[in-house]
Amino acid sequence: MSQAPDFTATVDGTPRIGPNRELKRAIESYWKGQTDRASLEKVAAGLRADTTKQLRDAGFDSIPVNTFSYYDQMLDTAIMVGALAPRFASVSDDLDRYFAAARGTADLTPLEMTKWFDTNYHYLVPELSADTAYSLDATKVLAELAEAGGADARPVVIGPITFLALAKSTDDTSRFEKIDELVEVYDQLLGKLAEAGATWVQIDEPALVTDIVDNADEVATAAEVAGSVYARLSGVANRPAIFVNTYFGDPGATVLEALAGTGVEAIGVDLVYGSADTLKKVPSLSSKLLVAGVVNGRNIWRTDLDKALATLESVKGLARAVAVSTSCSTLHVPYSLEPETELDDNLRGWLAFAAEKFGEVATLATALNKGRDAVKKEFDASAAALATRATDPRVKVAAVRERLAAVSEDQLARGESQARLAAQQERLGLPLLPTTTIGSYPQTSAIRNARAALRKGEIDEAEYNNRMRSEIDDVIELQEQLGLDVLVHGEPERNDMVQYFAEQLDGFFATQNGWVQSYGTRCVRPPILFGDVVRQQPMTVDWITYAQSKTKKPVKGMLTGPVTILAWSFVRDDQPEKDSANQIALAIRDECVDLEKAGIGVIQVDEPALRELLPLRDADKPEYLKWAVDSFRLSTAGVEDTTQIHTHLCYSEFGEVIGAIADLDADVTSIEAARSAMEVLDDLNAVGFKNGVGPGVYDIHSPRVPSTEEMTKSLQAALKAVPANRLWVNPDCGLKTRGNEEVTASLRNLVDAAKAVRPAAKA
Ligand code: GLN
Ligand code: ZN
To answer: pTM (2 decimals)?
Structure first.
């Protein structure tokens, strides 16, 4: 049994990419061969030292370490437990092997990447098989522990249950089959950490707030698995005190009871997305240190300190002691508000990025242990800043609220779909199996240079617009030459499909330096949705009508849907997400109507993120899907039946949302067919989908040029599942990351494939 003293204030984890994305730059220059390993390691060590110092300066008595990563914490865990997929063993240098697993090489396919729970972070999926032989490699965690020094350093590792729940099996053995062997490795790890002087270890088990373990056939319930794994680990003779951490939701009383029934010393819960009430149903918590995540680690709002303190007080009697923490790692928020010079005072007062959250945790811990008066000044300042959120006129705009309240069911519905199809066909006169693309064309260096020049003030808005128009000219001409049927303008003016709209809509704030890691070295800067959404004027009409003026073929208007805008932003926490989605939907609806008025006959509303906001618990999924579908329909159903609405979906396995895709009732859905076109179509048929569909026949995620024969075969297969008058021919996603030459060659083949299939399809 461990004798470690309880801690009172900490955070679950921290950002790691660098306050100015120093790590991103250092890694990318290492990849390009511009710097050597030693200089990369120096940057990394510097960032870790800065973070450790920052946490100590904040007054925490326990500091997370091993939260750094050169790419991803799941990949780090795979290496720690000796479960890196064997194909990477051929790379001899350990760091290069690591990056090979993350990004692939000329001969090695990388690990698959997928979303980390319901965040915008993506992890690398460990591959397990009958041959996986777990063995401990504690190099990284021991090095980071030693580097931080001090008894306050608390190594953080992903736990065995979460590791297995998120891994995939590459043969037919169950991923949980060798759980005992894996737990044995954690057993050894605990010994090594104790030897190295660690007094506490944090073992993260966010999988326990989902249904993943319960849904896996091969194992007992999550509660049973958690109970047995942690009974075993807490039985290790020489070990640090164990803090099992859950986050992103509520683990439920049964799981908590199972954990509390073991010898672990501390249990962490997310009291922002989970509930304090659950804890009341767990009597055995009374012997544990409860690590209470009351400061939101994944959204950017300032904490209501009085409310958080009340929560802390309410759980105080339920545990042996209470420590204050964030609800999850602050990996998911930007470093600091300091660089945000364009924030007005009100808005600044409502926000807290990672650095500000550290301060909130420390303040709350003081209040909990010494009384609120000890930090009265901080509490008062916080309350005063937050008070303006209730009265700021941007937060509640009466006209928006009245309009939303008056929305009726019939505003979500269009005419009968077959009649729409006929009316659209009459207007557009398209051939069978019409060809189109998803929206963006290659982002050329001319586009990037123009954007940089505009930012630096080297060119003015008018010159920038001229250059973008000239890009549109080129893209329209290319599509005419290739013989595509429904053209696009190519999206040269868009930096990003969400930010572009957020910058034009009231209610959003685009940060200057609010970068968060999306995966590896890729960072995103999500806009902040803080107020009611107002569209002051048309956002895309000038660009699209310009493109339409250059061709007789129909040009597709291109918009981002409400769910995707929401999914890729930091969203206000003072109203249900559904209401925010519907406000955005109204703005998109007005844009659709304006495009229609300007003579545009085809409008695409992209929803690639439809699946991303899917709740972690099965029970919550139907309600989400209902409002997500409704908000898409609200945004698209304002147009006449003669206007053709397209949507585009990608980035995911569609299984769980396939019914929702049909319910969107778009006239045409282009969809990434990750497996095969046929399978997606079969799935859609199974839910009674009757509208147009374009399963991607050209994989844009690879530079390979698909041959005409290959795409012809895909189309012939597709025709077995859908009639010719509903089948569209298109790539599986936008082309912006690709080069001009490969795109031109691929699209030429795509058009040829459509032409090759048409005669037989007509017959
Ligand atoms: N219209 C967007 C594009 O073509 C869609 C991007 C996406 O699906 N992520 O770039
Ligand atoms: Zn896509």
So the answer is: 0.96
